[in-house]
User: Which sequence fits this backbone?
């Protein structure tokens, strides 16, 4: 039983990270109806940015709260800039061309980041320095609640809360929702589509930047290909929850994290990575709109 | 009641979100009839076409073609049963040749299998030649046979509309649905189109239902007119009756479209 | 198209092969063999991605099925030594491999081809990965260590002329290259191929003409998977060793690059691109030796991005090599 609860805790904290990245997929999809294949590689770049920051200042030797927040800020900033730039350089010129072209470009950008990352950072995994000292926060009936899990969950919830405020209560957020409902009408009403799209990429990529530091602390091995697997899992989470739906992405992330933890705990860990695809296929066949998604009506 | 009823629509409805796009719509079409479906913009005319062709399924009601229910069938099945259509925003296969567009209309009547194609059997060659000949015959109706190898997207707008009608005819339909066939055509082209619609109706023994905004066109060509407004049918009858129908006039008031 | 064209081209290519066999060094021969495998991969993926307009990212999965089927068959059911039955056995291995891959293609295609665009790409990617994970966990197929000792066709001695093992392989490979080429080429100029293209152009319109679009898509997918399986089989006999890591997503993407670079919906474009992409690593070798870094994938990815920005139709677009040839002759 204790073991089970431990798995639940692990699952939730991993799920929160999936959710952060899934939000980026779902936001871009909601606006542009395309899968930003490069999203998870932006996350990888964020992880390396904070890694080099930490190494440069030798932060790992004296973990401290302030370092953690500086790393978090830097990673978020780098990711936001990168997301903004990718959209502007690679995706924007193709907005009017067939979907397939943008999809291919996105795959190209993803591969570019991965392999340029291999050249720049090296192929071997790097050890992410501990920015905070890990401690047992409290324990109930033999279950240790680690500080790290609480921090991950806390930061994730905070980020999601901020996102919620921005999307539902700010002017740009309203514009964002208008564009995702109907971009033609939104443009007629004077909303600058370009600005909204840039904003969406910045927002989504920032969340990936936050996730990058959180993952780095939890699974301290980082390498240029780390985005690939994370990307597919987070994407599956977004589809599971209903792509285009923000609460859906969070729900999907949690389910993903929990079910993965269960597979590792009670089945075979080699199947963990195939699990996400299994879930995806089942979802797409039986309920393509996902748990909280709505159906788009195709205009004829 | 006449016995040669081709199509029978009973109280079909569909709703998107909270909006009732089509609300308990009923309509009968006699075999050989040429009917019009009119209404202000957004009245749900194209949605009726989409319901008839299985793009959407009606949430209530039924549609019978020659006494056989079709409202649960898929688009391709309905097409094979004899309903063909054109689209409001022309949907040709733009990169394919004019001839290929017509040949695709004949696809489901083509018998040969992939093996025969791979081995280039005489049976395949005979059938392919015969299908091409049929397609050329169709193209001749609109004098398009000289442009058979041009990509369909390269044709001028009016010819694209014509090609789309021919492609629909290639499926050998009983009922032809035309969605704004005269849109974007000038006066003389429209007159020509009227003659051709009458001609193909005779020649192919067709029943035709058309959506059109050009009222002169509709009043002149259609034997019976059905009027939709906000998804509800508000009138049906012969052109002279519709032109003076109070509710129809009211529905069109304040719009740019003219009834006369 | 002449009915005897396949036979004539086979004879010509077989004669050309005699020269390749005598004059190319073994290293270049192996590159040549991989070119042939890649040509089949590119042509078959083009059927789905180019002609049918569906985006599949799972080609490596079907290739893996073919490769493992062939590896298993050829090690458990060894080909006899006599030359004609020997070659027939290898053709038989690839035929069975193709059929297995086609069955897998049918199973994958049925549910997933109802999905569109990006979703299909992700699902096919997922299926590819699942196939790989299954192989990874199957000890009969060598698991993660891979499958060793896959035989290739033996040397031929023909009268006084002694030919290398390369030539035996080459004969089997060009037989399949030509089969693949002519099957696809003939299909696309028939009603079946036109139906593929109608889906690429406008699925809703195709539906309205009575075309059973899902079935047509599955047909294209199955045909494509068949040849991917054949290519996998040839690959296994060429390399003599295969491992699950060979058939990762990168392999699929590699094939996608060939199709996109060559021009989706061109017969000869992807063939051209397959040659370029297979030879490019060799061309880049000096750069690699100079810097000690492998720039290949960075260059590929940049090709993809720049291509989409500058020339999204690929090198040849919908045209064929001979279209350019004729044009210049007329002028």
Assistant:
């Amino acid at each position: 039983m204790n073991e089970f609860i431990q798995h639940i805790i692990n699952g939730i904290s991993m799920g929160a990270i999936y959710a952060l990245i899934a939000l980026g997929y779902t936001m871009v999809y909601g606006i542009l109806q395309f899968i930003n294949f490069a999203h998870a590689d932006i996350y990888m770049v964020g992880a390396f940015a904070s890694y080099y920051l930490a190494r440069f200042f030798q932060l790992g030797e004296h973990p401290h709260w302030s370092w953690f927040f500086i790393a978090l800020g830097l990673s978020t900033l780098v990711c936001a800039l990168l997301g903004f730039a990718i959209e502007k350089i690679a995706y924007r010129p193709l907005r009017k061309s067939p979907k397939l072209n943008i999809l291919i470009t996105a795959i190209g950008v993803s591969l570019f980041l991965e392999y340029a990352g291999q050249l720049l950072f090296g192929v071997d995994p790097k050890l992410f320095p501990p920015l905070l000292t890990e401690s047992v926060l409290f324990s109930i009936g033999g279950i240790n609640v680690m500080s790290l899990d609480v921090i991950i969950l806390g930061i994730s919830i905070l980020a999601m809360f901020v996102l919620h405020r921005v999307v539902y209560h700010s002017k740009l957020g309203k514009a964002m929702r208008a564009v995702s409902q109907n971009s033609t009408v939104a443009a007629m009403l004077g909303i600058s589509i370009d600005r909204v799209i840039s904003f969406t990429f910045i927002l989504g990529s920032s969340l990936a930047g936050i996730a990058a530091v959180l993952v780095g602390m939890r699974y301290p091995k980082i390498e240029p290909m780390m985005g690939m697997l994370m990307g597919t899992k987070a994407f599956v989470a977004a589809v599971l929850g209903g792509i285009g739906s923000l609460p859906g992405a969070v729900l999907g992330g949690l389910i993903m994290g929990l079910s993965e933890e269960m597979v590792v705990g009670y089945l075979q860990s080699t199947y963990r990575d195939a699990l996400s695809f299994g879930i995806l296929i089942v979802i797409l066949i039986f309920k393509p709109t996902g748990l909280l998604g709505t159906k788009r009506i195709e205009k004829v | 009641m006449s016995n040669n009823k081709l199509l029978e629509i009973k109280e079909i409805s569909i709703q998107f979100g909270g909006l009732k796009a089509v609300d308990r719509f009923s309509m009968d079409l006699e075999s050989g009839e040429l009917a019009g479906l009119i209404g202000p913009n957004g009245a749900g005319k194209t949605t009726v076409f989409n319901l008839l062709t299985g793009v959407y399924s009606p949430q209530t009601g039924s549609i019978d073609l020659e006494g056989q229910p079709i409202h649960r069938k898929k688009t391709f099945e309905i097409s094979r049963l004899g309903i063909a259509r054109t689209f409001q925003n022309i949907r040709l296969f733009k990169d394919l040749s004019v001839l290929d567009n017509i040949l695709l209309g004949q696809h489901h009547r083509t018998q040969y299998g992939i093996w025969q194609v791979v081995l280039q059997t005489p049976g395949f060659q005979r059938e392919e030649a015969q299908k091409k000949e049929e397609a050329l015959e169709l193209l001749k109706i609109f004098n398009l046979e000289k442009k058979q190898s041009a990509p369909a997207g390269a044709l001028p707008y009016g010819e694209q509309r014509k090609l789309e009608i021919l492609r629909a005819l290639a499926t050998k339909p009983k009922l032809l649905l035309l969605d704004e066939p005269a849109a974007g055509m000038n006066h003389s082209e429209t007159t020509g189109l009227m003659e051709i619609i009458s001609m193909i109706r005779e020649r192919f023994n067709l029943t035709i239902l058309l959506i059109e905004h050009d009222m002169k066109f509709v009043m002149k060509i259609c034997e019976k007119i059905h009027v939709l407004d906000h998804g509800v049918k508000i009138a049906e009858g012969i052109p002279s009756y519709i032109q003076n129908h109070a509710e129809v006039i009211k529905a069109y008031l304040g719009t740019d479209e003219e009834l006369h | 198209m002449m009915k005897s064209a396949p036979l004539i081209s086979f004879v010509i290519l077989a004669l050309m092969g005699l020269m390749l066999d005598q004059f190319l060094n073994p290293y270049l021969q192996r590159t040549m063999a991989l070119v042939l495998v890649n040509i089949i991969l590119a042509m078959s993926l083009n059927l789905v991605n180019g002609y049918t307009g569906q985006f599949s990212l799972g080609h490596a999965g079907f290739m893996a099925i073919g490769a493992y089927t062939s590896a298993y068959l050829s090690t458990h059911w060894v080909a006899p030594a006599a030359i004609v039955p020997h070659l027939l056995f290898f053709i038989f291995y690839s035929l069975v491999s193709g059929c297995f891959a086609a069955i897998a293609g049918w199973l994958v295609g049925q549910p997933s081809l109802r999905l569109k665009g990006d979703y299909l790409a992700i699902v096919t990617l997922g299926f590819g990965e699942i196939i790989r994970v299954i192989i990874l966990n199957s000890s009969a197929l060598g698991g993660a260590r891979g499958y060793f000792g896959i035989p290739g066709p033996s040397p031929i001695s023909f009268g006084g002329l002694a030919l290398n093992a390369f030539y035996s392989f080459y004969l089997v490979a060009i037989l399949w290259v030509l089969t693949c080429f002519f099957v696809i080429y003939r299909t696309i100029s028939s009603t079946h191929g036109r139906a593929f293209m109608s889906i690429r152009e406008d699925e809703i319109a195709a539906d309205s003409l009575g075309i059973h679009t899902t079935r047509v898509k599955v047909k294209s997918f199955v045909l494509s998977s068949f040849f991917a399986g054949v290519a996998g089989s040839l690959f296994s006999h060429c390399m003599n060793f295969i491992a699950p890591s060979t058939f990762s997503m990168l392999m699929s993407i590699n094939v996608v690059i060939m199709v996109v670079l060559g021009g989706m919906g061109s017969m000869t474009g992807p063939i051209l691109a397959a040659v370029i992409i297979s030879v490019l690593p060799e061309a880049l070798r000096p750069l690699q030796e100079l810097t000690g870094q492998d720039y290949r994938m960075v260059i590929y990815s940049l090709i993809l991005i720049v291509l989409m920005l500058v020339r999204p139709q690929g090198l040849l677009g919908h045209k064929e090599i001979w279209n350019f040839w004729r044009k210049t002759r007329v002028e």
Observations:
- Chain C touches chain A through 38 residues (CB under 8 Å).
- Residues 83-112 of chain C form the longest helix (30 residues).
- Chain C has 14 helices and two strands.
